[in-house]
Structure formats: structure tokens, C-alpha cells
Amino acid sequence: METDQTRLVYLDNIRNFLVYNVVLLHILQIFAYPLLFWWAVIDKAGSSRFYETGLIAMDIYLMPCLLFIAALFIFPSLKKVTPLEYMKNRFLRLCVPVIVFLFCAGDIFFQLLLTRLNSIPPTYLETFLNFWRSFANMPAIYFSGSEKTLYDLSFNFQYAWFLTFLFFITLVVVLLSLPFRRKNSAPKEADSRNKIIFKTIIFAAVLGFVYVAAMVYYVGHHINSSWWLIIGKVVQFRLNSIWLLLPLFLGGLYVYKKEWLTRGDIGSWKIWGGMSFILLAIYALLYHVRILPVFDEILKVFEHNMMFNDKMAMPVVTLSVKHVILVTWILLPLICVFLLMFFLSFAKRFFDKPNAITTFCSKHSINVYILHYIPVLLLQYAFMNVPIPPIVKIILMTIIIIPACLWLSHRLVYPYPKIAIAFFIALKLIALAAGFTFYYFALLALIFISFTGAVYESARYMVVRKQIK
Questions:
Q1: 3-class secondary structure per residue, 111-160
Q2: DSSP 235
Q3: Which residues contact 379 (CB under 8 A, 6 or more apart)?
Q4: Other beta carbons less than 10 A from residue 457's beta carbon
Q5: For residue 8, what pLDDT is reported?
Q6: What does the pLDDT look like over 177-194, one tens digit per residue?
Q7: Residue 316 carries which DSSP code?
Q8: From the centroid of its chain, how far is CA 196?
Q9: CB neighbours of 160 closer than 8 A, spacing ≥ 6?
Q10: Which of 2, 187, 226, 290 is deepest in the core (most CB within 10 A)?
Q11: What is the pLDDT of residue 461?
């Protein structure tokens, strides 16, 4: 997203942190067996419960906080352009990349997954046709994740769900705000520090109650809360996370209207950090010691039943473990809200000054989010059998993927979006004829060319800076 002088720099920096945290989350998923047994590339030998716990912790705050930040920019943007122009720009920025991704690379996940599961995987053209056939046959309301076997290829938006979800809830906000567009409300007194803290804690407590009620309802009606709901073939969200996503998005609109970040004092980063990290530590410990040992056994059985005809009985979850799960349901919304307040207060205190690097990263952050997914999958596949420790693989993939995506955005996607779209579509059409092996090596080459370009330009930038000094 573009930056300008009216933006709050620290909000862009928070978004930078969250987006690059998403990249790390996807990289770690190769080592999260059996928690993510359905992931396309799984390294069972390198998997660790520590990686599983880390992914569970990251899942609490990443997308809700990104939605909160996005909500803060809606009304300021509407002051600069008409609602129609704004939604047109949002469509081009959010939905067009999703369409291009789904056509050019939406089937890569399934090709790699089927390659892992089958000694003789289907051809890439078959996977492509089955992917879009499943889209055509999808009902208006569909639960992705309810497939009977891992071999079932079913359409879903994968990581791109966030972009279409953000577009459609933004569209609803813009439409609802139209009757009030020209009404100028009189300036109101800003909330005091204590009032802001009190409202935030009440909001977190109410959100916790709602979240627990929703989870209890799912369990009582035998609904898998980890399933993804796809509505009208255009909007996708996970059943459990929706109870955090929408409240945090609405919370962002409320915080903007009440001017908490411009006229108010949201409290000390030390207070919010202390509360959030204590609760997060308890949450992670409960999962690591009590819940994951049980979940891992359940998921191994679930994986077996989704691959073979000889079904295994599910392990019994004891009452004590159910009580621990209930405690984590209570903690999760509190952690999410308190961490958000920590990010806001900490970044405002220490990361509110623009510099060339953070400005560059902010400019390309949404493109990094869009571009990173396929490099993650391909490098996970490439590093799969390389005999080096998992932590080294994680570091190498992070070092390669983020600079490569930044450079590709800087040199191709951002300045020449139409050429970029034409290039990726042409490459995909060639791949459908030439096969997945061609596509795999062509995309790998593009990743390493982009990484090399990023290293070269970074080195040149450093040399120029030294000469200026």
C-alpha cells in the first residue's frame, strides 16, 4: 500500500511485521506434523511440537490484527476519493491478484500434495482441470475441510481468502456509510487514558464470552470449528476465527472514529505487553504440555482415516483435557486484543519515525503477502531432502523468500502490473502444455533471479550510502 504524510508510520510498521510474520508462519508449516498433516509438503522427521506451538500462538493474532489495521485506513481513504473510486481501487488491489493467483498457481498446492501422497501423481493439466471443475461444482455454501479423503481435490482460496474477505467486508462498510458521508459531526471530547483501557478490557472480556459460546455451540452440534466456510464461491473464512476477525475489524472502525490513536492515550506498552505475554505464555504452555500430546494422536488417526479404508477408532479426550481446552478458549480473545494494544503502543513509542527501509517495505507489503505463498511451497519442496537441520532450512527460506518477493514487487509487479499479469498467465499456459516439472524449475529460477537482484541492489544501495556519508 502507498504511504503518504498523513499516515501514521507506526501502523505501517505493524503491518510490515504482521505480513512478514505470515511468511514465517507458512514456512514453519512444513515442520508441523501431525498438526498440519494436510499441508502439501511435510517433513515428518524434522517436525517438532515447538513448531506446532509456535504456529498456534501466531494464529491468534496475525489475521485479526491485520484486519484491525486495514479498518483504520478505510474512512481516511474515503475522504480522498469517491466511494466508487475507492472500491474500484480496492477491487484492483485485492481481488484481481486473487484471480491471477488462482488461475496461475491455485493448483500448485494440490499438485505437490498429490505428489507426496501418490507414487504416480496426476499430470499438471489433470490437476488444473480438476481444480476448476471442483470450483464449478461447488454449492453456494460449502465447507472446505469436510472432504472424506486427502486425495479429494477441492477448490479453496488458500492464503488468498484474506484478500477477498477484506474486500467484501470493506464493501459492506462503504455501502452502510453512504447515508452519513456528508454529515459532519461536531468535535467530541477524547476518551481519557483510563476510559480507553477500561473499554478495551471490557471489549476483550465480552469477546471472550462470545468466542467460548460459539465454540461450545460448535462442539454441541458436532461442527468442526477448523473447517473453512466458502460463501457464494467468493468469500472464505474459518468457522472459529470469524468470531475474532469481525469484532477486531469493527474495533478498528470504532478506534478510528473515537480518535484513540491521534487524540487519546491507549496506555503503556509495558502494561499491555505484560498482560498479553503472561496470558500467551500460559496459553502456549497449556497447548504444548496438555493439549497437543492428545491432539497429535487424534490427528494421526484422522490422517490415517483420510488415506486408508481400514478406519481406526478416535482416541478419547479426557474431561481434564476438555477443561484445559475451555481455558484456552477463554484466553484466546484476551491475548489477541491485549497483543494488539501492545503492538500499537510499542510501535508508537519506538517505530514511528519513517526511514527508507521501512517505507520501502510498507510500499510493497501487500505484494509480498500476495507473492510469497508459492515460493514458500516450492522451496519447502526443494529443501525437503536436503540433509541440514530444520532451523537452518527455516532461516534460508526466510532469507531467500522475503528479499525475492520485495525485488519482484519493486521491479515488476508494482511498476508494471499489467505486464506482470500477462507474464504469469503466459508462463502458466506454457506449463499446462509442458508439465509441472517445467513450471517448478521456471518458478524456482524466477525466485533465485529475484533474490540475486535483491542482493545486488541492496549491496549497491549500501555502497552509495557510504559514499554519501
A1: HHHHHHHCCCCCCHHHHHHHHHHHHHHCCCEEEECCCCCCCCCCCCCHHH
A2: E
A3: 397, 400, 401, 444, 447
A4: 15
A5: 83
A6: 888 766 666 667 888 999
A7: P
A8: 28
A9: 97, 98, 101, 102, 370, 373
A10: 290
A11: 82
Tell me the per-residue pLDDT of 381-402, one tens digit each, with 9 for 90 and over: 999 989 999 999 999 999 999 9
**Is residue 87 in some structural domain?**
yes
Query: Residue 353 belongs to what domain range?
Result: 9-177+190-468
Cell (9 digits) for 146: 469436510
Q: How many helices (H) and strands (E) does the chain have?
A: 18, 3
User: Beta partners for 129?
Assistant: none
The alpha helices in 178-291, defined as continuous H runs, are 193-220, 242-257, 269-286
Scan for cell 485506513, then name that residue.
Answer: 73
pLDDT at 2 over 90: no
Say how many CA atoms lie within 13 Å of 256 toward its Cβ. Answer: 19
Helix, strand or coil, per DSSP, at residue 236: strand
Bond before 187 cis per omega within 30 degrees? no
Q: What is the mean pLDDT of the chain?
A: 93
Give the pLDDT band of residue 6 (cuts 50, 70, 90): low
What is the spatial distance between Cα 171 and Cα 80, in angstroms, rounded to a whole number?
17
Q: Which of 54, 5, 50 is nearest to 354 (CA)?
A: 5
- Percent residues over pLDDT 70 in the chain: 97
319 in any annotated domain: yes
pLDDT digits (tens, 9 = 90+) for 333-383: 999 999 999 999 999 999 998 888 888 988 999 999 999 999 999 999 999
Q: Cα(451)–Cα(402) distance, rounded to whole angstroms?
A: 8
| Identity at 211, one-letter amino acid code | Y
In a domain, 16, yes or no: yes
Q: Is residue 358 part of a domain?
A: yes
> What number of CA atoms fall less than 13 Å from residue 172's CA on the CB side?
11
Neighbouring C-alpha atoms within 13 Å toward the C-beta of 423: 11
